[in-house]
Amino acid sequence: MPNLKLTYFDIHGGRAEPARLAMYIGGVAFEDHRISFREFGASRSSYPFKRVPVLQIDDVVLTQCNSINRYVGTLAGLYPTDPLEAAFCDEAMDAVEDIVSKQVATMFIKDEDEKKAAREALADGPLAIYLHELQAMLETRGGEYFADGRLTIADLKVMVWVRSLRSGILDHVPADLPDKLAPKLVAHLERVDGDPKVREYYARFT
Ligand SMILES: N[C@@H](CCC(=O)N[C@@H](CS)C(=O)NCC(=O)O)C(=O)O
User: Fold this and answer.
1) Degrees, nearest 5: CA angle 169-130-202
2) CA of 96 to the centre of ligand 1 (A)
3) How many angstroms does the Cα of residue 55 sit away from the middle of ligand 1?
4) pLDDT confidence of 44, banded at 50, 70, 90?
5) Residue pair 130/95 in contact by the 8 Å Cβ criterion
6) Comparing C-alpha atoms, which of 63, 64, 75 is closest to residue 3?
7) Is the CB of 65 under 6 A from ligand 1?
8) Is the pTM of this model over 0.90?
9) What is the arrangement of strands in the sheet containing 54-57, beginning at the earlier edge strand?
10) Is 15 touching ligand 1 by the criterion CB < 6 Å?
11) What is the mean pLDDT of residues 70-94?
């Protein structure tokens, strides 16, 4: 097994959280290198694309969270070997990346009225569409998991996203939007978040 060092913000969410969870669940040893926003500001230029997460694998550096997810998902036994099931896994993860990018675009709006309008449009448009489509995708795949009929890295990625929406992280977007528009994604979140290994992972931080 290579030496793995995953660098990301010191938060229980975001683009590195599925990889952290996957490695913990799969018993893959890694250095969980957590940095503050201030530290990121100071070291930003040292990261490819000036962004995190980055995964150092021995002496090479891997960027792009879904590439990291596929790689660590494979090491952890949480990425399908069947090509079509792997594509289903990617499909769900890429959909989450799409919508997260749209959310991020509203984060840097300084004017409060403008931000409110952008967030309301986000809730009515893209967020509603992605919640609806991801719920439909889940149902098409059998209703419990997004690929392979079992927990995969895709479930961790969708769970982390739905959980963040329900935390009310986006001002002007109702925290109960997933409950109202995609209750089956909420049931999926509860199933995945309630997994004993996921519970064990978070218990380490309390
Ligand atoms: N396409 C990249 C996006 C990475 C990204 O934008 N990361 C954010 C944090 S979640 C970041 O580093 N932002 C810093 C900045 O934009 O200055 C990925 O999939 O990992």
Assistant:
1) 45
2) 14
3) 13
4) very high
5) yes
6) 75
7) yes
8) yes
9) 31-35, 4-9, 54-57, 60-63
10) yes
11) 98
Q: Amino acid identity, residue 41?
A: G
Residue bearing tokens 């009225």: 113
Q: For strand 31-35 and strand 4-9, is the pairing parallel, antiparallel, or unpaired?
A: parallel
Q: Is 54 in the pocket of ligand 1 (CB under 6 A)?
A: no
Please check whether residue 185 is in contact with residue 134, taking contact to mean a CB–CB distance below 8 angstroms: yes
**pLDDT per position as a tens digit, 96-148:** 999 999 999 999 999 999 999 999 999 999 999 999 999 999 999 999 999 99
Strand positions, DSSP E, the chain: 4-9, 31-35, 54-57, 60-63
pLDDT tens-digit map of 140-179:
999 999 999 999 999 999 999 999 999 999 999 999 999 9
What residue type is 35 in one-letter code? I
